[in-house]
Amino acid sequence: MTLEVLAESAARWEEVPFVPEIRLLTTAEPSGLWELWDRTERDAPPFWAFPWAGGQALARYVLDHPGTVRSRHVLDAASGSGLVAIAAAKAGAVSVTSGDIDQNAIAAIGVNATANGAAVTARTFDFAADDACGAEVILAADVFYQRELAALALRFLTRAARSGADVLVADPGRAFLPAASLTPLISYQVPVLRELEDAPVKTVTVYRLA
User: Which of 115, 157, 172, 210 is the most exposed place for a label (fewest CB within 10 A)?
Assistant: First the structure.
């Protein structure tokens, strides 16, 4: 599922519902795009084509608490659309690296960051193979939805925290959330797409890795 396919599928620039300061290139027909991926499965799922609940909450938190990232080097891990990375750049981070394992996501991050006037460096990133790249703040949204990924993400984030990074994650109660390792900071009621979630509004909590 490529960025070109998204552009051809009635995509449009839309304000993010819970973060209206940021616009993303979003498919106008989420169910149709998802069905197209189900039929082809030639690429990774198009997670980058939508604003997910965790990303909206973490972006909101960063914008409302700019001291979290201001004048600091930030890594947004498993960035998807780049929403959280863009928020960090807008909040005054000295540098923002936005990483994702999907090359199509990297392309989308570049397009979205440029449209929002945000200085974001997009790069390939893999929880299993990469380090924190010297980041002082690690942001990760919605990364605990699958068992293996959750384990990889927790190992990476724990190493980063032990190295001195401030690690913030946001999650809407996914199945593999490592709650025992996390300290809740704030919860939000986030509007989401019914095609992607089981309810029109999700309770999303922002945590600091203990």
Answer: 210
